[in-house]
Amino acid sequence: MERFEFTYPAQKSLPSHAQAGVVGSGDLEALYEPASGDALVVRVATSVDGSQPLWQRFFDHLIGVRELPAGQLDINDFGATPGVARLRIEQVFEEASDVR
Q: How would you class 81 by CB atoms within 10 Å of its CB: exposed for 0-12, middle for 13-18, buried for 19 or more?
């Protein structure tokens, strides 16, 4: 199990915390916690050894196509494909932006 952390510039935080996905074989769980400030801290725990450069490229690309919210994003990855990773991250940000 590898663990690593990235920090990215961010815009305003989203209004609430959220969770998307389920930890399990071939899937990914994303948990978002809003915070004031101008950064998104991404903490990744993954079962895939040597994947830090892939995650770095993933988020470097993501910041180029969308604004990231301020706060903390915890990712628990158990071999999800890049498509599933993107889906779960978009889902967690969408859920956190819903004010109920």
A: exposed
